Amino acid sequence: MTVNKVSTGSFQLVAPSTSAALLKNPDVGYLHVQFGQYWQASAGGVQAAGRSGKVKIATTAAQLGELQAVKSGALSAAASSSSTFEGWIFADAALRMAAGDTIPDYTVPMRLFSADNIGSITLDDASMNSGSWYGPTEPIADGFEKVWGVS
Q1: Could you report the per-residue pLDDT of 72-130, keeping only the tens digit for each?
Q2: Are strands 77-81 and 56-59 parallel, antiparallel or unpaired?
Q3: What is the pLDDT of residue 32?
Q4: Cβ–Cβ < 8 Å for 109, 82
Q5: What torsion do the CA atoms of 93, 98, 100, 101 make, to the nearest 10 degrees?
Q6: How far apart are CA 34 and CA 103, in angstroms?
Q7: For residues 72 and 123, is the Cβ–Cβ distance under 8 A?
Q8: DSSP annotation string for 37-89
Q9: Per-residue model confidence (pLDDT) at position 139
Q10: Rounded-to-integer distance, Cα 32 and Cα 129, Å
Q11: Tag placement on the chain: N or C end, fewer CB within 10 Å?
């Protein structure tokens, strides 16, 4: 395994350092890109190394652009937790802390999106914002609003 140590401050190095790592390790078949903003530059590195079609790229970011890339085949997979649900739990935790209450353990919905299941979801902003890619959304708001006494 090779870790490509880049950041937003060295973004211009993503493609060439990815290419160099692939040329140094020609048996690499998979590339994991941690953040969505790096996958296209990383794909450029794969192409520059002459490894297009030989290296599968996956990311742990699953926003609309990444999932559209999974559908088109540009990304092999995207895995993520529901950012909509995380927003609710962050608000819940803040309100509980302000009230002096304990914060419960939360189970955040996660999902792996691939060619096998990408057709089961609607790829649009409304679906992304609702959290529907991860399952039913109605109980999320209803459950928190009930706890907060606003339902």
Answers
A1: 999 999 999 988 888 889 999 999 999 999 999 988 889 999 999 999 999 999 998 88
A2: parallel
A3: 94
A4: yes
A5: -20
A6: 28
A7: no
A8: GGHHHHHHHHHHTT-TTTSEEEES--SHHHHHHHHHTSSSEEEEE-HHHHHHH
A9: 64
A10: 25
A11: N
Contacts of 130-135 with C-beta under 8 Å, sequence gap 24+, read 130/84, 131/82, 131/83, 131/84, 131/85, 133/62, 133/67, 133/82, 134/81, 134/82, 134/84, 134/85, 134/109, 134/110, 135/109
Tell me if 126 sits within 8 A of 95, measured CB to CB. no
* Tokens representing residue 114 in the block: 């691939």
Bridge partners of residue 112, in order along the sequence: 79
Q: Map tokens 């529907």 to a residue.
A: 132
Amino acid type, 107: T
Q: What are the CA-CA distances from residue 117 to residues 34, 72, 147 (Å)?
A: 21, 13, 34
Report whether 19 contacts 45 (CB < 8 A). Answer: yes
Residue for token pair 């606003």: 150
Q: Are 69 and 106 in contact (CB under 8 A)?
A: no
